[in-house]
Amino acid sequence: MDRRFPFKVLEHIFSFLDANEDRNSVSLVCKSWFETERRTRKRVFVGNCYAVNPLKVARRFPKMRSLTLKGKPHFADYNLVPDGWGGYAWPWIEAMAARRPLLEEIRLKRMVVTDECLEKIAASFRDFKTLVLTSCEGFSTDGIAAIASTCRKLRDLELRECNVDDLGGDWLSYFPETSTSLVSLDFSCLDSEIKLSDLERLLSRSPNLKSLKLNRSVTLDVLEGLLRRAPQLVELGTGSFSDELDPEEISKLTKALSELKQLKSLSGLWDLLPEYIPVLYSVCPRLTSLNLSYATVQMPDLVDLLSRCSKLQKLWVMDMIEDKGLKTVALCCKELRELRVFPSGADLDEEDVALTEQGLVSVSEGCKKLESVLYFCVQFTNAALVTIAKNRPNFRCFRLCVMEPFAPDYRTQQPLDEGFKAIVERCKDLRRLSVSGLLTDKAFEYIGVHAKKLRMLSIAFAGDSDLMLHHLLSGCESLKKLEIRDCPFGDTALLENAAKLETMRSLWMSSCFVSFGACKQLSQKMPRLNVEVIDEHPPKTRPDSSPVERIYIYRTVAGPRQDTPEFVWTIHKNPEVGVSRLSTR
Amino acid sequence: MITEIEMGKAESELELGLGLSLGGGTAAAKIGGKPGGGGAWGERGRLLTAKDFPSVGSKRAADSASHSGASPPRSSSQVVGWPPIGSHRMNSLAAKSAREEEEAGKKKVNDDEPKDVNKKVQVGFIKVNMDGVAIGRKVDLNAHSSYETLAQTLEDMFFRSKPGTIGLTGQFTKPLRLLDGSSEFVLTYEDKEGDWMLVGDVPWRMFITSVKRLRVMKTSEANGLAARHQEPNERQRK
């Protein structure tokens, strides 16, 4: 008797599965489930573009409508990955264009996207709706123009922190007069000026536009006119907020902002002048997300604003907020879930540092729903970390950047081991952690023992020995991404825990004591890992024991990649071949 | 399952190995032990330790005694990629301090300077490539106020391996003198119009508003540009 569910029934059941983690599990049960699942998956996510062959992905998921890809390692954000490393979108775009012309959404992060890619997208996917590029590079505004002009059903065009060759603001005029489908537009990372009339006309004919993020060159005097044409906005990223307005203009702008009854998210606010804070009063009570990280205002003005934001869930701000300002946040923003405090570049040697660990302690006390933190601070104490952990066991993401490397607890001069121990012990749901300050191997022992749900860990200037890495690789069961720089561990831990690396997405190590010989051994031991050495000098000209500058190790079923530049060396599995570059470039 | 003792053995073996690869005699890398301990691995650069970073205020005065002068203390902002702030944000901060400097410097306007001092200068990190070196670098123009400091930084970047940065071309003992045309290399830049020019011809302020990227070029290849540079010298000789 055939005990299998009919395909149609299975298909119906699987249609309720959204999360790819669930779909991945389901596809492992048996062949027929695998088949059914793959035929029904619409949203495909590939966390490392080199982990799998694009053609295979295209073939596996015939109903694919949305593709999300990530390219370069995360540390590329901090200039640790040299230009030309890789992460090219082209092979993916080409494969999808050929096999999946019904693709509607493409989201890329840290990838190299050329104008050719964008033109290919515009030409190949007739129902194309969504393009989101985050931290991408390699294209110009010409490519954007191609998307704008050709994708008739375009809904979302978002360029987030991309490095664009900005040839001018003409691209905006390429949206055809007939296009009315736009829902979100984000060009905040572009430099050049756009033509105001182009934008005004676009807004007037886009009744569905919910999210608009302007670039800095859009001046304050034109904002009112734009807002009048888009009162339905839910998310607004302003341009520069520092130009001089006369009282009448100020009053008009205030009114226009108050008309945005649906507005929940506010960002941009470049160079916000204190005298314009009252202009924002009307939107504050409704805001759930506020990004003040480019607003160069001082604490009293920030307090003025934040004390009115009782519904705030996400706050990004600079350290000018000081401990005092964070106390206000703790009192007034009871719904806060995510806090990021960025450094403003104040001199590290200043005696009276106004943002200390106390600020974060206050917020952890007052904001019971706080679960995600990124906090830059000059120095910290174990006591503060312990208090924070006690207050907020519900942290899912905890990233502390003590800006002075090797800084101990400034009161006790002890390493911050005990503080981070408290964090990982109490926060059982911790998914992401960044550690800093003076840390010995003990800290990593604690992390290995307690952080069982940890998926991503970032480490810099820490630890004493191989034990550090050993604790992490043998202890953190859920670890998927590990990135380490300037830590004194070497080969032993890496080789002892080689099998662990296949359960992870990737491992990045730079300026550590890992030798070239160990890289070779690792690669030979683990067939499904790509061990890539990033080094100016060809490794084979140096002895095996010499340390390599940077290593990127990731699991893959696609084999060594063919597009490595001259400074990336993929270690061959065959010891006789040794090391070479497979690329023909 | 590795025990602590076995790890300890592995550590000392590693110590020996590193010591040997450095050509003996030099202090073997001491891994483990007290914080602030680090290793040396010779000309390729070394692991940064606490000694490389200056104390914060007077609270760390006790540590200043341990600064034996082995290497000049540096601010943590001179380390590549530290603090870990995305480049967009970095550029924005850099532009902000450039504007603040401009505002402070408005009182001292030279004849050299362009008339529109109010123009906002948004300069941040720009790319630098060198002939024969695969890995390009980025330099923060806002950290400099003259050609001399820029040239010095570039020389350090490409020719001398400073701790904490990658020594890209290994050792190079002669001072470089990128600006006076007397060495094997010259410093050139691409301006906003796409032309390649020799660095140093225009006033600094004009330079930073028009530069798009830099290139350290072999003097022999910079022929068309070198001619412009040599003329004044020739005139001087006459």
Question: Which structural traits does this protein have?
Answer:
heterodimer; A: 585 residues; alpha/beta; 22-stranded mixed beta sheet; two-stranded parallel ribbon; 24 strands; disordered C terminus; B: 238 residues; alpha+beta; five-stranded mixed beta sheet; 12% strand; disordered N terminus; repressor (chain B); Auxin-responsive protein (chain B); AUX/IAA_dom (chain B)
Report the structural category of chain A.
Answer: alpha/beta
Count the strands of chain A? 24
Strand order of the largest sheet of chain B: 2-1-5-3-4
Strand content of chain B: 5-15%
User: What is the average of the pLDDT values of chain A?
Assistant: 93
Count of DSSP H/I helices of chain A: 20
Number of DSSP helices of chain B? 6
The total count of strands of chain B amounts to 5
Family (chain B): Belongs to the Aux/IAA family.
GO biological process, one term (chain B): auxin-activated signaling pathway
Function (chain B): Aux/IAA proteins are short-lived transcriptional factors that function as repressors of early auxin response genes at low auxin concentrations.
Protein name (chain B): Auxin-responsive protein
